[in-house]
Write a structure and sequence with these properties.
about 525 residues, globular
Length: about 525
């Protein structure tokens, strides 16, 4: 027996000895009654969809189940144009949502296809309540902890609140959870087929959320470094193969249609029509100093400049939003200059100019925002390159997790809805605070994790929390819905483990978050 094998043998002996809960039998309730757990999740997730429709009535949309976001048409219009005109356009977005919608449109009308999309999102969302519990079971060997994760994720509505909305959020959350589950399952069983399935869900996640593209090579590298299979290179390739094939087809299509190499989106991070709007140029300037650019959120920094959408009366079209902070200024412009630019934007919104004059004014305002952004980048490089990203991080995470949850003033809600929202606030705050502690603990011990899950789950959580504010300076609150299930998972595991230890249960030698060495 080699030294490495002896080390692994000793590790597994300690692993069994220090478990705070005994490992479940294969006939445990979670696995024997899987259909009951999924049925309960279907009912609860369906109830959340019903609550949304109760508080968002009157939308004149095809079908009866779907709701829209500002991005919905960007996902569905290309499919409708492909059916009607034979052209997949506008094709800014990768077809992660369009693909299943196109399949439904082969035999259903627009309304029925939208309803089918909601049913698909609802079904996957419910299944993944159970799947997240299976991930917890594999990480801890404890059915009790797995059941706690199931209950906590079932009660939480933060990520599942996107289930009736035709967009990429619900599907991307489901695809990522399924990828993680089948990755560990494939390694446990030595199954190339399950690796291919895990890679397919990861590829789907990228087609839904292009920012996840870096997870593909990182997942393959994880398999190579862990060497959990006899032929790690073959396993790594099998995991990456679905993305390589699908993205190769998408890239070839874009090269043929546009004559450009576009392996992800076709027009950068934003579509060209958005890039011509004032809000895009104002957003770029506000991002430069780390301001909140969410124009649909009352009181955000960008609304002070007259860029707003929805809820205009709440903050008087942004006039009640806080003025730019001192660090938003550099030599070359003054508070009076920004105030004058804000007045120009509001004047344009009143629509009193002719179409020709309005178009010229838009171009002029955009040029002014670009000029200010250039000045700030040049004369405040540390603020622009470093501090603005930390401010974006705060903008992203400093929330209560209920931005889109029952959009009615809290004091106007019935008692049950107030309790419901407070529970969701608690779930968000505790999941990310405690989950972050667990995430750091696991990543700190990255060299010898008991399973791939002990490394991959916290890494995905950290990646999805950090990538948007630090790499892209973006801070939309819904981005936190993607790492939320993993934060909740880690938080429940840590609380359950530490709770048992503080109650006086012996765990001599336990050094990791779960069943470690």
């Amino acid at each position: 027996m080699s030294g490495q094998e002896m080390h692994l043998c000793a590790f597994h002996q300690v692993f069994r000895r220090t478990a705070l809960f005994p490992p479940p039998q294969q006939s445990g309730m979670l696995k024997r009654r899987w259909y009951l757990f999924i049925m309960v999740a279907l009912v609860v997730r369906g109830l959340y969809i019903g609550i949304q429709h109760h508080y968002r009535p009157g939308q004149d949309l095809p079908g009866v189940l779907s709701l829209e976001s500002g991005d919905t048409k960007g996902y569905l219009d290309p499919v409708e144009n492909l059916i009607d005109q034979g052209r997949y356009e506008p094709d800014y977005r990768m077809p992660g949502v369009a693909a299943p919608y196109w399949l439904f449109r082969q035999f259903l009308g627009q309304g029925a296809s939208r309803d089918a999309m909601v049913l698909l999102q609802w079904l996957l969302s419910a299944i993944n309540v159970y799947v997240l519990a299976l991930i917890a079971l594999r990480m801890t060997g404890s059915e009790r902890i797995a059941l706690l994760v199931y209950i906590a994720f079932l009660i939480s509505a933060y990520s599942s609140w996107f289930d009736p909305i035709i967009a990429s959020d619900s599907l991307s959350i489901s695809a990522l959870i399924l990828h993680v589950h089948f990755l560990q399952s494939a390694l446990d069983r030595g199954s190339q087929g399950r690796l291919l399935l895990s890679g397919s869900f990861l590829a789907w996640f990228v087609f839904l959320r292009p920012i996840g593209v870096l997870l593909v090579p990182l997942a393959a590298a994880l398999i190579l470094l862990r060497r959990t299979t006899p032929r790690p290179w073959r396993s790594a390739l099998m995991l990456a193969l679905p993305f390589l094939v699908l993205d190769g087809v998408w890239t070839a299509r874009n090269l043929s249609v546009h004559g450009s190499f576009s392996p992800l989106t076709n027009q950068g991070w934003f579509p060209e029509d958005f890039s011509r709007e004032i809000r895009a140029h104002a957003m770029h300037f506000v991002q430069g100093y780390g301001g909140n650019y969410i124009w649909w959120h009352p009181g955000s920094d960008i609304r002070w400049y007259g860029v707003w959408k929805g809820g205009a009366t709440i903050d008087d079209e942004g006039r009640l939003a806080k003025a730019p902070p001192p660090y938003a200024y550099v030599e070359g412009y003054t508070p009076a200059d920004l105030g004058a630019l804000s007045d120009r934007v509001r004047s344009l919104e009143r629509g009193r100019s002719s179409p020709t004059d309005s178009l010229a004014e838009v171009v002029s305002i955009n040029a002014r925002f670009d000029e200010l952004a250039g000045l700030y980048k040049e004369r405040a490089p540390f603020q622009y390159h470093v501090l603005s990203r930390f401010r974006m991080f705060k903008n992203l995470v400093w929330q209560n997790g209920t931005e889109s949850l029952i959009i009615v003033p809290f004091d106007q809600l019935p008692l049950w809805a107030k309790v419901f929202k407070l529970v969701q606030v608690m779930a968000y705050v505790l999941s990310f605070i405690i989950g972050t502690i667990a995430c750091v603990m696991l990543l700190w011990r990255w060299r010898s994790p008991p399973t791939v899950l002990h490394l991959w789950v916290p890494f995905i959580m950290a990646y999805l929390v950090l990538i948007f504010p630090f790499a892209l300076r973006m801070c939309e609150w819904r981005y936190m819905a993607h790492p939320f299930p993993f934060a909740l998972l880690l938080a429940v595991i840590l609380l359950a483990r530490k709770g048992r230890m503080s109650a006086g249960h012996q765990a001599a030698g336990a050094r990791t978050l779960v069943n470690g060495r």
